[in-house]
Amino acid sequence: MADFTGDNLSGARFARVNLADAEFRAVDLSGARFRGVDLSGVVMRGVELVDVRIDGEIQNLVVNGVDVAPLVNAELDRRDPVRARMRPADPDGFREAWGIVERLWDGTVERARGLDPGLLHESVDGEWSFIQTLRHLVFATDAWVRRAILGDPSPWDPLDLPWDEMPSAPGIPRDREARPSLEEVLALRRERMATVRTVVDGLTDASLAGHTEPVEGTGWPPPESFPVRECLLIVLNEEWHHRQFAERDLDALRTGATRKAT
Question: What is the pTM of this model?
């Protein structure tokens, strides 16, 4: 077991490192940045949490004896009541939710068209560029709709972009440096979004309550059976959050308030 007592590791970079069950005592983490990390089961006591920003999947987060996750979700729903519609329970709800996604993305794309095309390849604060965000959503649709629900074992387009922390898998593209035009990516997006529209339009109570058939071969998601509702909720979640990230970054690109992550 490695022991770093008294060592100065300021500025160190940890990537794909297993720190499960590690112990941190009297450690200075000020200014640290965490991206794509698993903090499940972490216990923090005697901490100073000041001027901290956390974005991610938050459940059962207890702060000073209070589970704050329901409070956060309730506040987010209050700020934007449409957000609650991204958790539909029946076929009509999924059709409504996808209609909202289509409408909101139309507006976001129009905003992006108003920028210099080169800016759409620019990262804001180390996040994906606008083009990369669209490419990732193509991947999400390919994974959870075309592969999981429709049964295509290899639905990928060369422009598909998995999340950065996903381990490489044979046959799944990962060209983070590709620079397709906005129109090229939008053509791909329109095709994939039309596929989702066809699926949700055909939903019945029985099909929504059903499970997918495992596909053959390796890939993402794994060749297992998944609840259809779960697959569609994942896609809605991806679409909702990444559009919000895109809007945030378009604001920064318009004002020139961009900076690279450290």
Answer: 0.84
